[in-house]
């Protein structure tokens, strides 16, 4: 067999995007079916139960567990402020009383005359779910969330860190092979999604954080740069929950990799427009790609593009998307037609790659994707 088919990263001027916006716990949906929403609009909200704080009242007051209910100064279900009295012992002849004060604000949830324990629950934590993209509500799940749909320009990266942010796209390089140096990131980048070219060093990530940019997009970086920036090693199984102040998306992989021309040209054409960006990445079951979404303006005649599978053949340039060669780029040198048993003892179709350093490796076909030339 001389060729096969494999998906690549999606880079398209117009496609239908549908996003699920769901609460982690039951709550209230704030929008209606068919309603047009903005990315920053809250579409659902709920209260997460506060933390439980156990109070050993019997032990603290030096009394028997069955004496605890009588010693209480607040009853079950009542609210209490930090520093207020929770319970007071009888003392001896009315003297030498011992008291216990609330360590935090909260509500008395239970009082046990068997264990002598009192459960204090901290105030609930309000949470809100934003629409994330400009679009229309196409489905409402009562008490849980909504689905928002829009037609948008769409760019996927191969790896990212940081969660959902929204900002105006600002391209600061002249070509897709230009490095995103710190000098290119100015105070005008505050609140912006900065687009670079081939490489983003640690210093540029720090500069972006310093000036208040919401996201950085570039072709690649080194894993040590990410470690230096974050202060710890990061795995590649799942990301997106990092609290780092700026979202970083790599469109090509790890190393000094030129951003694909199609990706760069599309982002350049979108400069000045507001994008929804998410660095969340998952490369195992249920693959999640970091993404940049720019809704198409109303009244635009831009037709939706279809996203098709690409032809994988001898000479194709591909990127490995799973360990142990994650992020490396190579040229296909062989496409054996018959399934082969790999190290995991699974029987799969494979291909042979010549990596950029000249090394030849064998990987499952499912572990690669085509690179835009």
Q: Which SSEs are present, and which pair or pack?
A:
Blueprint: E1 3-6, E2 11-22, E3 28-29, E4 36-37, E5 42-48, E6 52-56, H1 57-61, H2 68-71, E7 79-80, E8 85-88, E9 99-101, E10 106-111, E11 117-121, E12 125-130, E13 135-141, E14 145-156, E15 159-161, E16 164-171, E17 192-195, H3 202-211, E18 215-221, H4 223-230, E19 247-254, H5 261-269, E20 274-278, E21 291-295, E22 310-313, E23 317-320, E24 329-334, E25 340-341, E26 347-348, E27 350-355, E28 360-364, E29 368-370
Parallel strand pairs: 16-17, 17-18, 18-19
Antiparallel strand pairs: 1-22, 2-14, 3-5, 4-13, 5-12, 6-11, 7-10, 8-9, 10-11, 13-14, 14-21, 15-19, 16-20, 20-21, 23-24, 23-29, 24-27, 25-26, 27-28
Number of domains: 3
Parts with pLDDT < 50 across at least 5 consecutive residues: 1-6
Backbone shape? elongated
* Percent of sequence in beta strands: 35-45%
Query: What does the radius of gyration come to?
Result: 28 Å
**Structure classification:** mainly beta
State the helix count: 5
Determine the mean pLDDT.
Answer: 88
Termini separation (Å)?
A: 23 Å
Mind describing the biggest β-sheet? Answer: 11 strands, mixed
Q: How many E-type strands?
A: 29
Give the helix level as a range of percent.
under 10%
Q: What does this entry look like structurally?
A:
By secondary structure, this protein is mainly β. Helices cover 10% and strands 40% of the residues. Strands 2, 4, 13, 14, 15, 16, 17, 18, 19, 20 and 21 form an eleven-stranded mixed β-sheet that branches. It has a five-stranded antiparallel β-sheet with strand order 28-27-24-23-29, with no helix packed on it. It has a four-stranded antiparallel β-sheet with strand order 6-11-10-7. α3 links the parallel β17 and β18. The N terminus is likely disordered.
């Amino acid at each position: 067999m001389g060729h096969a088919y494999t998906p690549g990263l999606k880079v398209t001027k117009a496609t239908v995007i549908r996003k699920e916006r769901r609460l982690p716990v039951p709550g209230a949906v704030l929008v209606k079916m068919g309603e047009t929403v903005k990315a920053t609009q809250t579409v659902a909200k709920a209260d997460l139960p506060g933390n439980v704080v156990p109070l050993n009242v019997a032990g603290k007051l030096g009394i028997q567990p069955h004496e605890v209910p009588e010693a209480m100064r607040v009853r079950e279900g009542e609210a209490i402020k930090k520093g207020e009295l929770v319970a007071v012992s009888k003392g001896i002849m009315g003297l030498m009383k011992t008291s216990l004060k609330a360590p935090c604000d909260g509500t008395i949830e239970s009082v046990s005359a068997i264990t002598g324990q009192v459960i204090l629950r901290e105030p609930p934590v309000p949470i809100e779910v934003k629409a994330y993209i400009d679009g229309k509500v196409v489905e409402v799940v009562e008490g849980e969330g909504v689905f928002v749909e829009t037609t948008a320009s769409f760019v996927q990266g191969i790896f990212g860190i940081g969660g959902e942010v929204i900002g105006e796209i600002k391209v600061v390089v002249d070509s897709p092979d230009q490095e995103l140096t710190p000098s290119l990131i100015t105070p005008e980048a505050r609140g912006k999604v900065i687009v670079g070219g081939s490489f983003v060093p640690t210093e540029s990530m720090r500069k972006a954080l310093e000036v208040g940019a919401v996201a950085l997009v570039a072709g690649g970086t080194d894993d040590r740069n990410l470690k230096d920036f974050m202060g710890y090693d990061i795995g590649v199984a799942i990301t997106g929950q990092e609290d780092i102040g700026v979202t970083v998306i790599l469109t090509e992989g790890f190393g000094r990799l030129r951003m694909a021309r199609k990706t760069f040209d599309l982002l350049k054409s979108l400069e000045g427009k507001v994008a929804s960006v998410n660095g969340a990445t998952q490369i195992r079951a249920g693959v999640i790609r970091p993404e940049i979404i720019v809704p198409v303006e109303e009244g635009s005649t831009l037709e939706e593009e279809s996203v098709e599978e690409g032809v994988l053949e001898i000479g194709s340039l591909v990127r490995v998307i799973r360990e142990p060669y994650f992020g490396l780029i190579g040229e296909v040198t062989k496409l054996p037609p018959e399934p082969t048993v790999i190290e995991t003892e699974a029987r799969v179709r494979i291909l042979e790659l010549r990596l950029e350093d000249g090394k030849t490796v064998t990987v499952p076909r499912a572990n690669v994707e085509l690179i835009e030339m």
